[in-house]
Amino acid sequence: MKRVEEILIHCIDDIKAGRATLAECLERYPDVRAELEPLLRVALAIKEKPDVKPSDAFKIRARARLIEHIYASQSQKKTIVPSSQPGIRYSWFTGWTRAVAITVAVVLVVAAAGTGTAYASRPSLPGDTLYSVKLGTEQLQRIFTFDTAAEVELELKFADIRLNEIDELASMPADQAATINSGGSTVLAMSVIGFMSNKSEETYITQAERIEQAAAGYEKNLNMAITKSEQVSNNTELLEKVALAILTHLDRLDEIEDKTFGEMVQIIARSKAVALNGHMNAVNNLAFVNLVRANEINQQAIQNRLERAEAEAAKGKNTEAQNALQEMEKLRQFGDEIPNSNMDKGQDSESTNGDNGTTPGMQHETPDSDNGQSSQGTTDDTNPSDQGQGTQNQTQQDGQENPTIKPPTSPTETTPNGNDGNTQPQGDNSSGSGGSSQ
Amino acid sequence: MQENKTPDLSSEIERLVDEAKSGDGDAFGRLYDMHVDRVYRHIYYRVNSNADAEDLTQQVFIKAWQAIGRYKQTASPFLAWLIRISHNTVIDFYRSRKSETYIDFDIIATKPETDPEHMVEAEFNKQYMRQAINKLKGDQQQVILMRFIEDFSYPEIAAALGKSEGAIRVIQHRGLAKLKTILEKAQQ
After folding, report:
1. Of A355, A438, B48, B84, which has the maximum CB count within 10 A?
2. Whether residues A161 and A35 fall in one domain
3. What sign does the dihedral B152-A47-B167-B186 (CA atoms) show?
4. Which domains are present in chain B?
């Protein structure tokens, strides 16, 4: 006689296959009917196959992360000995590894296009092969963000990511931070047009160069955030958010500055100058709609600079302390100008509704290009083979005046380390790994 | 089981697994494409949350990649192996959420009182049955899910769990009996 376990299985199979009904099965095995029936009923009740499927967006996104994880884990296994000779080429990144990278690039771009999610939190850093893909996903997030306020928040988020990258790079030992630049932009472009090349394009990239890329990206993200925030000049909450975010940026840049040395110090000083100018622009924009809050935030910034000066002085870092004091003085003078500039702009706004006229002593040099760029530029960038083209043009327009935000004219115009804040970054931000596509 | 429906598909999976084991990430990506729906569905059934299911599905494939070198094709189908990883991942997930109830039977408790026999005859509410199955422990749950939800054959389940087919039959029998008890108890 069959054991009840086997009878159960036969009955389930027969009933599911339509070869028997429940009653027929029970009739076949009267001796075990009492035990069999409730079990069969339970088993047959588990007929529900959950009609759930993961979304295509998730599948693509998860696949991209998986492939990136695979690629990253494999890359880590390879030992790369940095050369002291810039431009030395390495040949490991050929064949299937390149093919994987290209596939990853395509997938990541599609993933971002399909989801618009915050894919920019990826771990890759400037100089990494996948960094251009990271920037590509950010660019596509811009394309799929249609609300100006959301665009501002997106740029602030990207600026935070750039700061994280700078921080991470600055925290690495120099030999570890140096890496092989595999021409990420090229990889991304090739992936889109379906072109695969076996030519190795890797070059040695230093820690400072990688930080430079991230810093240039940060400056552009910040500029875009501020420029776009002016398009929603009645959104008090958003304007305040921008101003507060920059306060945080300045603190973070202070921390990063403490970790840097050599040419990296200059880069961070430049980014700080941009952040400082960004702060003044943001506060000025806020002053339009909430003068009190704008003054409070500026006062906070002044206080922060003072504390920074005291802290650096306590550590015996006189140069840094002096720089902080200069920044504080600049903010103090700016604070004196806020009411006036606000009144000027207020009069403008009364006569020309929505006119974001330039504040005296404070200019955005790219209102035309940026305003156009927000839509036109990103449209151009829908072809990732042109990745960074829009911002590349912007960089060219910026010319020698990048960062785009000019500080107010004041007697204390000089910024730390003699950098006036308007110095064009040494690196070409429109090339390399796509740092310009911020 | 899906991946064994056609020899071509089965051999394609075997080939991809071989390539993945030799370090081909692209091959593993294609394995992902072929199995992600099933893995997700299995996990979703267990956690009943889209966000958690997505997160855990990602974890499963990353774990699978990390362990692919230890996978033996002759032992069990690749999907069964993934389901096994999924099962363990879900267990870890619940362990990490110690404060949370593994299964919320409040929903069941609020259902109208019915005769247990009639209850079984009735069409089971999806939520209702899922919660009951999730109340099963260990192998019982895994066997019930793999057999009735994932449609694995008994030999495949046996291979995946490293047990004999006879043992799987016994586990299934006990699992169904326990399920019946759980459902009845939930009605009390």
Report:
1. A438
2. no
3. positive
4. 1-98 (1.10.1740.10), 101-188 (1.10.10.10)
A251 has pLDDT over 90: yes
Whether B120 has its CB under 8 Å from any CB of chain A: the answer is yes
Which chain B residues are within 8 Å of A69, Cβ to Cβ?
62, 65
Rounded to the nearest 5 percent, the helix, strand and coil shares of chain B are 75, 0, 25
* Three-state secondary-structure class, residue A381: coil
pLDDT, tens only, B124-183: 456 678 888 888 888 899 899 888 888 888 888 888 888 888 899 999 999 999 988 888
Q: Look at the block and give the residue holding tokens 């326990």.
A: B178
Note the helical H segments in A290-388.
291-314, 318-351, 367-372, 378-380
Contact: A74, B173; criterion CB under 8 Å: no
Residues A374, A421, A427, CA angle at the centre, nearest 5°?
70
B187 and B119 Cβ atoms separated by less than 8 Å: yes
B41 lies within 8 A of chain A by CB: yes
Q: Is B100 on the interface with A (CB under 8 A)?
A: no
Question: Do A16 and A84 fall into the same domain?
Answer: no
Q: Could you give the ipTM of this predicted complex?
A: 0.78
- CB contacts under 8 A, A 77-136 vs B, are 96, 99-100, 103
Band of pLDDT at residue A357, cut at 50, 70 and 90: very low
- Measured distance CA(B56)–CA(B39) in Å, rounded: 9
| Helices B165-187, B154-161: inter-axial angle, 10-degree rounding | 90
Q: Given phi > 0 = left and psi -120 to 50 = alpha, else beta, which region is B53?
A: alpha
Residue B72 three-state SS = coil
Compute the average pLDDT of residues A372-380: 33
Spell out the long-range contacts of B152-161 with Cβ–Cβ below 8 A and sequence spacing 24 or more.
B152/B1, B152/B77, B152/B80, B152/B83, B153/B1, B154/A9, B156/B1, B156/B4, B156/B76, B156/B77, B156/B80, B157/B80, B159/B75, B159/B76, B159/B77, B159/B80, B160/B75, B160/B76, B160/B77, B160/B80, B160/B81, B160/B83, B160/B84, B161/B84
Cα–Cα nearest to A281, from A399, A214, A366: A366
Which residue range(s) make up the domain with A133? 56-437
Domains contained in chain A, number: 2
Q: What angle do CA B66, A433, A123 make, to 5 degrees?
A: 35
Question: Nearest residue of A to residue B169 by CA position?
Answer: A5
Residues A274 and A420 in one domain: yes
Q: Find, among B39, B157, B58, B138, the residue nearest to B91 by Cα.
A: B138
* Contact assignment for B173 to A99 by CB distance below 8 Å: no
Same domain, A169 and A280: yes
Q: What b-and-e string marks burial along B24-48, b requiring 16 or more CB atoms within 10 Å of the CB?
A: bbbbbbbbbebbbebbbbbbbbbbb
